[in-house]
Task: structure prediction
Amino acid sequence: MKRRVQAGFTLIELMIVVAIIGILAAVALPAYQQYTKKAKMAEVILAASACRTTITETIQSASSNALTVAANLWGCEVSAGSGSKYVNKVETTTAGKITVTAQGFGDTDIDTKVITLVPLIGTAVATINDGQRSVTAWRCGDTATDGTSLTIVKYLPGSCKG
Result:
């Protein structure tokens, strides 16, 4: 008697494989989409880092305790429409608050939303009378007091959550 050699997979085996792939895709795709948005948001925060350095150095090396830099004249701003793929504009205030407007995400929860970075001296927000003092930290993404309009904090990098 001759034995018949199996020539391939059965229909049931193929259906099990397809079902497993479908389950993995249903779990992995949303996680991957969140990961990519978070990586793009890191570029938005990075756009503010040049301003962060400029503002920190200017405050610390001011010739008097009164800052004389006007809003949007710190030298690190980006005008509307001339930013990168994910950054529309970067603006600053007289006291050094940085406002970055996001764009190009294809998500209405993120596009046109604003992320703020505020210099802190100790635990207080820096003011125009804090020249010659050291900026000790930066508060990032605070929706309650700083004006950040991006309310879904899961998209912010770990270094920028409140």
In short: The beta strands are 87-92, 98-102, 114-121, 124-125, 137-140. The CA atoms of residues 108 and 150 lie 10 Å apart.
